Amino acid sequence: MLILIMVASLGVLVGAVGVAAFRISEREHAHSSALPATADGLSADLSAVLHAIPGITIILDEDDEVVRADAHAHAKGIIHGREITHPELISLARRARRAGSLISRDIELPRSGMDDEAMLDFQVHAASLPAGRVLIIAEDRTQHRRDAAARREFTANVSHELKTPVGAISLLAETIAANPHDHEAIARFATRLTREARRLGNLVQDIIDLSRLQSPEAPYEPHITDCRAVITAAIQRQETRAEQHDITLNSPDTTRIPPLQVWGNEDLLITAVHNLLDNAVRYSHAGGVVSVTCERDEEWVRIHVADTGIGIPADAQERVFERFYRVDPARSRATGGTGLGLSIVKHIVADHGGTVSVHSEEGAGSIFTMTLPVADREGQELS
Ligand code: ATP
Ligand code: MG
Questions:
Q1: Are 259 and 300 a contacting pair, CB within 8 Å?
Q2: How far apart are CA 207 and CA 340, in angstroms?
Q3: Percent of the chain at pLDDT exceeding 90
Q4: How far is the CA of 241 from the centre of ligand 1 (A)?
Q5: Average pLDDT over residues 19-30
């Protein structure tokens, strides 16, 4: 929402600056002899305004030839030599010239040299200037469009994922209510009810974690944090679950390894290691082994979470960090997975200036590695 407001304000700002440039130019026309001119024949005032405008600025003369354009106009292929390459922009400029006013339009332009798929979205303002000149201001909104599409997709996915456990819970509750005397059935349905409720709780927690991490405000105040404590706490949280699934959980002897200090937030880092451990246990068979190891060099702290589980096919290894991506949705669903855990890990690690990677072999197991920048003894983060 905040981004939307910012984008809207930017749009208004660009529009306002366009109008300001138009007015300044009108003034310039009236007092042209009093103002110093620049090499392209524009007043110093107008040149300064054009420099201050965020976005692409182009000035055309009365014959639609480019008088002045910034580097982005060339780089994005909007102008070539002294000509505008896109007929839509020329016709917009002509309309503004004829109307003697400011006209704004959203225009999709093909990226020069790219296939038809690669379109750039521009919000374009064309302002008529004196002497038949036209000022064009174009704001590239392609990234905004992609962000909006990602947000829409996320909302659609969340709604879909929420509907499944909510539907199951209400169905199970109705069944229990309809069979008040069948104690055996009640016990069976109540177990499933608990499982669905837990899944719903996990999903809601994941969504809260993710939206907090994606919020534009700084999500936390970083402190010097020792990853040995992070690993110990994350392992403690998983011990019971590993035992329940008959999985051996090997942890490093943190009393015998040197400090692993990074700048960060302990709770978030525990969540990240916990999510990796949660997967290692969830995607392993009974009798499997999950091991956490860690190391550091001058620059980086590395935490490895290895398992002897089902592994991840090569073509899915990049995708597992995407939101809601699951290699086998049926299996994840059965075990309560929603496909957000690794996306949360990726965000947390990125917020700490690090990376997360995976090495995996189908049927043999996986190793996930979190790499974080070391905080040196003076408390300065190494770059
Ligand atoms: P949750 O949001 O509850 O963590 P999830 O475990 O399905 O759900 P992620 O943790 O993001 O979601 O993992 C995405 C997918 O990557 C999983 O569904 C699974 O297919 C695969 N995956 C992740 N870790 C492992 C692992 N250690 N071994 C095998 N597959 C894994
Ligand atoms: Mg997971």
A1: no
A2: 8
A3: 48
A4: 16
A5: 46
> CA-CA distances (angstroms) from residue 109 to 80, 87, 120, 122, 127?
15, 10, 5, 7, 20
Contact between 219 and 357 under an 8 Å Cβ cutoff? The reply is: no
| Run of H or E including 314 | none
The number of the ligand 1 atom at minimal distance from the alpha carbon of 311 is: 29
Orientation of helix 183-214 relative to helix 142-178, angle to 10°: 160
d(CA 340, CA 209): 10
Side-chain-facing half-sphere of 374: CA atoms under 13 Å: 15
Contact predicate 300/359, CB 8 Å: no
Query: Which band of pLDDT confidence, cut at 50, 70 and 90, is reported for residue 65?
Result: very high
Residue 36 reports pLDDT greater than 80: no
Pairwise CA distance, residues 102 & 95, whole Å: 9
pTM of the complete model beyond 0.70? no
Q: Which bound ligand lies closest to the C-alpha atom of 305?
A: 1
Under DSSP, is residue 112 helix (H, G, I), strand (E, B) or coil? coil
Task: List residues near ligand 1 (CB under 6 A).
Answer: 202, 206, 275, 279-280, 283, 307, 309-312, 320, 325-328, 332, 337-343, 366
Q: Which two tokens stand for residue 360?
A: 């995996």
Query: Is the predicted pLDDT of residue 320 greater than 90, yes or no?
Result: yes
Closest CA to 359 of 288, 306, 295: 306
Residues 6 or more apart whose CB falls under 8 angstroms from that of 346 comprise: 321, 356
Report helix angle 266-282 to 227-244, nearest 10.
Answer: 30
The number of residues in the chain equals 383
Distance CA 226, CA 219 (A): 19
